[in-house]
Amino acid sequence: MDVEVLVRALAERRRLAHRDRWSREQVRVYRQARLAELRRWAVTRSTFYERHHAGLVDAPLSELPPVTKPMLMDAFDDVLTTRDMTLAAIEERLRRLSDSSGDPGARWRRRWRTAATAGTTGVRAVLVWNEREWATVLASYARATVWAGTPTGLRPVRMAVVSSRNPTHQSAVVAASAHSPLIRSLRLDATAPLSETVSALNAFAPEVLVGYSSALRPLALAQIEGSLHIRPRAVMSASEVLSESAARVMTTAWTRAPFDVYAATETAGIASTCEHGRRHLYDDLVIVEPVDAAGAPVPMGTTGARLLVTVLFSRTVPLIRYELSDRVAIGSGDCPCGRPYRLLETLEGRAEDALSAAGRTHAGDLTGLLRNVVEQFPVDMWQLAETAPDEIRVLVVPHGGDALVVDEIRRRLEARPELHGHRVRVDEVATLPRTPLGKAPLRRSPPGR
Ligand SMILES: [Zn+2]
After folding, report:
1. Whose CB among 5, 39, 162, 190 lies 3.0–4.6 Å from 438's, allowing a Cys bridge?
2. pLDDT band at residue 259 using 50, 70 and 90 as cut-offs
3. Cα separation of 110 and 321, whole Å?
4. Which InterPro entries does this chain map to (predicted)?
C-alpha cells in the first residue's frame, strides 16, 4: 500500500465532497479559474499547445481547436509538460506490465502512474499522471461510490469489481493503488465463466458490486434464479451503456437501482448517478462540450455527435477540448439532491458500438425495438452484429443455455411488422466476442472497420 497517495486521495475526496455542497455560481467561478490556470500552464509548458493555441491565448474555450486521439499520440512527447519521460519509455513500462512482471499500482520512476485505453477504435491512447493528478483520479472514482451510498467510515468496504484484469487498464491501476485498509477489493474477469464468478462472489459477499453492464446482467439473472446470493448495498455499472431493461433486472435482483458511472481513462469520472437516480456531471473536474458532426456546440438537451472534454486537473498531459466519441446530451433543471452540477440526460454508446453509416440506416433505428423484445427474456448478453447491408444478425447468449428462449425471441421478432423487409437472423451463441478489455458492446461493425 502506498500511504502517501492514500493520504493525498483522502484529502482530495474531502475537497470534492465539500464542492458537492456549493452553489452553481461557486462551481462556475471555480471552473473558470481552473481553466485559466490549465490554459496558461499548457501554452507555457507544452510545445504542442504553444503551437496548437498560437494566436488564441485570449480566445474563449469554444474557439480553441479540438485535440483528437491520433493528434495526441502523434505529438505525445511535445504534449508532455515534463522532460522526465517519453512516449517510448511509457510504452516500454506498459509492455512490462502486460507481461505481468510489475505491480500496476506501484509508482513508476518514483512519481508516475500510467495506463492505456483499449484501442478498440483504432488508435490506443496512453496516459501518465503525477501523484497529485493520480490523487484526483482516485478521488473522482471514490466520489461515484460515495454518491452511491457506500459508507466512508474507517471499516474496510468489501468491493467486487467484474471488469477487465488487464494490468494496463486504468481500473486495474486504480484498484491496485487504492487497495488499502479502507477498501478490500476483489477483481474478477468479465470474460470468466459465469459459474466461477458466482462462486467467487458468494464467498466474498461484496458490499459494493461494480462491473460492466454486460457482466452485471447475467449476475442479476443468477441472483433471481437463486445460484447467486449476495446482498450488495450498492451496485455500480461502469464503462458500458446501462440500458433501462438491464437496470430493471438488477433492481429486481438486488432490490435497489444500480448506479451508473460514466468515466474514461483520459478523464477519470465524468458523471455518475446520485441517490435520486439522476446522473450529474463532475462539472468541477471536467468541462464537457457535446458538439455536432461539424464540431459546433449543440443546444442543451440535444445529443451531440461526439464530445469534447477539458480535464481541469490535467497537468502532465494537458487535455483541452480532447475528443471522445461518446454521444451525450446535457439536461437543464435541478435535482432534489441539491448538488450544484448539471445533469447528464442522454448517454449513448461509443464508437466501438456504432454501426457504419449504411448499417445505421437499416438497423440503427431498430436497436431500441430489438432491445425491447430481446431483453424481455432471460438472456445473459446479446449483440446486434452487422453482417450484410440487408441482413440483421442478432447474437443471443440465453441464461443457462436455454435454447427455447432463443426460439421464442425468433418467433417474437418475426411477428414484428417493423422488421418485415429485413432478413433477421437470430443465433444462439455460448459467448459474445469481447473487446481486448472484455467489454461486449451492443452493436458491432464487421471486422476491419
Ligand atoms: Zn441529484
Report:
1. 190
2. very high
3. 30
4. ANL_N_sf (IPR042099), CapK_Type1_Caps_Biosynth (IPR053158)
